[in-house]
UniProtKB/TrEMBL annotation:
InterPro entries membership: TPR-like_helical_dom_sf, TPR_CcmH_CycH, TPR_rpt, Ycf3/AcsC/BcsC/TPR_MFPF
Domain called Cytochrome c-type biogenesis protein H TPR: residue spans: 33-172
Residues annotated as signal peptide: 1-20
Keywords of the record: Repeat, Signal, TPR repeat
Pfam families: TPR_11, TPR_CcmH_CycH
TPR repeats: 78-111, 112-145, 146-179, 180-213
Name assigned to this protein: Cytochrome c biogenesis factor
Keyword Flavoprotein (UniProt): no
Family matches, as SUPFAM superfamilies: TPR-like (SSF48452)
Length: 285
């Protein structure tokens, strides 16, 4: 599964906290202005609700349009800027996403979810030091958020801070012992450190937790093939790519944080005649 675990389910839909109901205008404000202001705020609230619902159904373009309008009607609402920032990230519009999230942070500086979203955004921009700072700050407020612990592990991995990466993967696993992506990623770290046996052990644990997880299965296949157990490696590789042919793409593997050592071994594995035959068959299906 992609290692940039989607925080959008956390950041946009599941954790979109309620927006306050409109407050009554001050007594000294003229009556007509009271009505207009209240109506604008109600419209903004409706737009926020519609945007969140559309995001749930993967209709991100429509959700983004409503969130943009809501931000004009409710410019002092950190929730609206938070939602808008997350939708920009979903559309791969990273700079507008960061700008909206920074606006949300200015309005609500101690909100952990906003900090996690900024960490995720900076990770996507390959600004790993900044990503780590935001994720660390958020985890000081909410230290048991599994997606954030996992993201911080990934961030330390990209910074080659391997012990810290493993420590945060282990913290995520401590919250959920069946969270196989963190177990899988410890395997990735171990392989890059040259501890292939340990890497295979972690990948086997991950594969046992999800029998349809193609990633740990392919990683085991590559490692076994490189160690000389070629027939077993090829069999596992065939099964993995039948489950998810995306893992035949080196670019996809790099996106999923496969390191240089593992990528080099995977290139050799995928170039074998047997794997080329398997890839041709899978692609033809």
């Amino acid at each position: 599964m992609p290692k940039q675990i989607s925080l959008l389910s956390l950041l946009i839909v599941g954790s979109l906290w309620s927006v306050a109901e409109p407050v009554a205008a001050q007594v000294l404000v003229p009556h007509m202005v009271q009505i207009d202001a209240a109506e604008l705020e109600r419209r903004g609230l409706r737009l926020v609700e519609e945007a969140a619902q559309l995001a749930q159904f993967q209709q991100f373009d429509h959700a983004l349009a409503r969130a943009k309008l809501a931000s004009q009607l409710l410019p002092q609402s950190p929730q609206v800027w938070f939602l808008l920032g997350g939708l920009h990230l979903q559309a791969n519009e990273l700079d507008p996403g960061v700008a909206a999230l920074q606006r949300a942070k200015t309005l609500d500086p101690d909100n952990a979810l906003i900090l996690f979203a900024l960490g995720s955004a900076h990770f996507q921009k390959a600004q790993y030091t900044d990503a780590a700072e935001f994720l660390e700050a958020g985890l000081k407020i909410q230290p048991t958020q599994i997606p954030a612990l996992f993201d911080l592990g990934n961030t330390y991995y990209k910074l080659n801070r391997f012990p810290e990466a493993i420590a945060h993967y282990e913290k995520a696993i401590a919250q959920d012992s069946k969270f196989w992506p963190a177990i899988n990623n410890i395997g990735l770290v171990k392989y890059e450190q040259g501890d292939i046996d340990a890497a295979v052990d972690y990948w086997q644990q991950a594969a046992e937790l999800d029998e349809k997880a193609a990633e740990p299965m392919l990683a085991i296949a590559v490692a076994l093939y490189a160690q000389g157990d070629r027939e077993q490696g090829l069999k596992l590789g065939e099964t993995a790519l039948e489950l998810d042919p995306r893992y035949a793409s080196i670019d996809f593997l790099v996106e999923n944080l496969w390191g240089d050592r593992l990528i080099s071994a995977t290139r050799r594995f995928l170039e074998t005649p047997r794997m080329q035959e398997i890839l041709a068959r899978v692609e033809a299906q």
